[in-house]
Amino acid sequence: MRTNYELSDKMTELLNSYNRNSNAFQELIGEGGYMPPNQELLIDAISALSMGKNILLKGPTGAGKTKFAETLSMLFQQPMFSVNCSVDLDAESLLGFKTLANKDDQQVIEFVSGPVINAMQHGTFLYIDEINMAKPETLPLINGVLDYRRTITNPFTNELVSANKGFNVIAAINEGYVGTVPLNEALKNRFVVIEIPYIEGEQLKQLIQENTQLNDEHTIDLFVTLSADLIQAVVQGKIAEDAASIRALLDACDLSVLIPAERAIQRAIVDKLEEDREREFVLNLAATLF
């Protein structure tokens, strides 16, 4: 069994003493960290990473996948190199590129490491965002990085790069969006999958209080209700997932400090939607609540 990390005594104690009614993980994360709706998600992610396994965070847009990855990086005290996937992602974006440089008054060709090579050589986390946005022929370049070998032959230098202790991969995926492609089985099998749902209820209220400038409790409660209604509408297929983005909701909360809440919701949420039917639905919800 491959083990990349030794958990701190505090983390080990909290993991061992955890129970469903415990507030231990609030202490573990501290202020400003991401608290998953289901605390088992955090336990499972910590356990997988401590054993050297890659994790794939799967969930709707704005559910907090990137914040979750940043929190894991903080908990392990590991810096994190990032890759933002798109259809234009290529080997240079992942691994690095060659460039001309001056050395001893002469021009030489140097290799500038990309995020994958940097994370491997420094023994840190690698975060691959929207991994299913990349072209299917691009990601197999790093299959050896993602499995037990933890190595890659750099095509630009022919050097065999082996990951240092501490290296691990966290990826995030939004399924069903325009431009995304299904992950092939060879790639998916290299990850432990963790489903990230929306934050709701008291946790969402706390998130708003700690991460926005809104401090009026009544208005915060209304935004929490709005979020619950939007999530329910997404489940029922009435609106797109974008409408229930927690990130967008936090923007609306901030704006509502300076402009009317209905207009804040329009700017942060409604105007991002493509269909008139969806826009009208969210505006009616906002008008009813605010």
From TrEMBL:
One of its GO terms (molecular function) is ATP hydrolysis activity. Residues 51-200 form the AAA+ ATPase domain. This is MoxR family ATPase. InterPro entries: AAA+_ATPase, ATPase_dyneun-rel_AAA, CbbQ/NirQ/NorQ/GpvN, P-loop_NTPase. It comes from the Bacteria.
